[in-house]
Amino acid sequence: MQEENHGVWIFSEVPKLAFELLGKGSLLAKALGSELVAISIGPAEGNEDYIKHGADKVLTANDPALANFHVDTYTDALSELATEHNPDIILIGATRNGLELAPRLAERLKTGCVTEATRIEPDADKRYLLMDRITLGGNLVETHVSRVKPQIATVARGLFSALPADDSRKGQVVKVEPKIKDPSTKLLEKMPKGAKGVRLADASVIVSFGRGIREKKDIIMVEKLANAVGGVIGCSRPIAEDLHWLPEEQYIGLSGQKVSPKLYFACGISGQIQHLTGIRNSKIIISVNNDPKAPILEFTDYAIVADLYQILPVLTETMRQLRKG
Amino acid sequence: MVNIIVLIKQVIQTAELKIDKAAKSLVFQGVPRVVSETDKNALEESIRIKEKHGGKITVVTVGAPEAKEALREALAMGADEAILITDPRFEGSDSHAIANALAAAVTKILDYDLIICGAYSEDLFAFQTGPRLAEICNLPQITYATKITLDGTKIIVERDLETERQVVEGKLPCLVTVVREINEPRLPTLMSIMAASKKPTTTWNATDLSLEEDELGFNGALIEVLRSTLVSGDRKRIILEGDSKEISLKLAKALQQEGVLKVD
Asked: Matching CATH topology for A8-175 and A196-324?
């Protein structure tokens, strides 16, 4: 094992997520007596923001060929920088871009990678990271250790908190010019999607429903409750994938959206572990289900065991009055 | 003519897993093993490509000997031949070791234009096999495909990202990962199941793939799994009782105390 690996690096092409990684990275850097480095690839502006959010140093590569994310060029850039500087840790934002970059980068560096780690802590000797990830459809938590460094993990949005921006923080911005090859694919066209999925990931109140809603027209009941509590609606996987009542961007679960609202209502959702994994970062979970044995009850703060169709209209009215104050 | 390698994985049907609360462990007994859904989408897409352009589909899996069942299903769906990579020495593999074994198989097959697999497997959701394999084989990767069109050696792929859809153009040979919405996998018919039994299935072990001892399984893994524990619900589990009105008022009070509901 190389002893000289040093430094906690973070990278995300999404600034908000990069700041969250810096929040976590600053805790790790402190624990390990290490420096915190933000890798900024693409636009030159915004480098100071990384420092305000906790970076000691920013390595910035502003080659015009790196203006937009491409897995080829970004792997080239990051692998060259990592080979030159031997970081101890690289945290990468688990966007779809990040999730195709991290394993490719790890394979080039011949090191381990833990995708969508849920807990990242140094071991007792502060030599290796213990990285948890959830597997087997959300049933198991495995603790992984990378035998090789840099130790690479991807981190989902909303898992860690960013530090508040501190304008007085000082740091170093270092321009770097990694060699990159021409990308193997060419972007012909891009079409923005409806922002629904993104809104769900950022929502502070979500009212979600599953198979307990018997007909598509009954979704209006859920929408009314969502309105009353100032939230947005989501659903379980079968509602989107099998019944197509809502777009796929709106289902919550291990394979869908992972959400971290303050308040999560699960209406008529039995609580398949795959759904529970998507909601585990919620602050308060309320379930409404007529089955007192439904697995969701184990994962609930406030459980309502009742007929959805009777309780929802009453609950909606109560919530509406409550919020009017 | 397009020769396609489809990578599939046999997974346990995680939705069927039960928890033995007393033993604090998962009950695997009686849980069916199936082909991971996204890999079925990959196979379906390759069948559609073959129907249009002709060629051959080779389906490959790494797994226990029982994974032959998954290959049989793939042959029944429409693959032309199957390769099972199995060896007790693969025990303890991580995604690098698996990609390494697959790379050896792909290199041995040699004659291919396109490799297709699911973007993730339904049991682990690691998203690693495709990109790692592409890196080892020095192939371009095109991920999260929702549509694939071929034109000679040109490949046009629609991709699904969080906030946008992209259309990208690449060249064969390359590796493509697909997501569920790309298609609806067909069900095998009685005829196609019968026909599948006549299709060739080859079994390769580590030696057949010229893999060294230190590349295999636990020895070849870059990630070590220290421990695994059951996910527990760390929640209050308060059951609100009464009639609809009472329950609603109790919840309203609780949410006010929690400070989670914004009052306008």
From this structure: yes
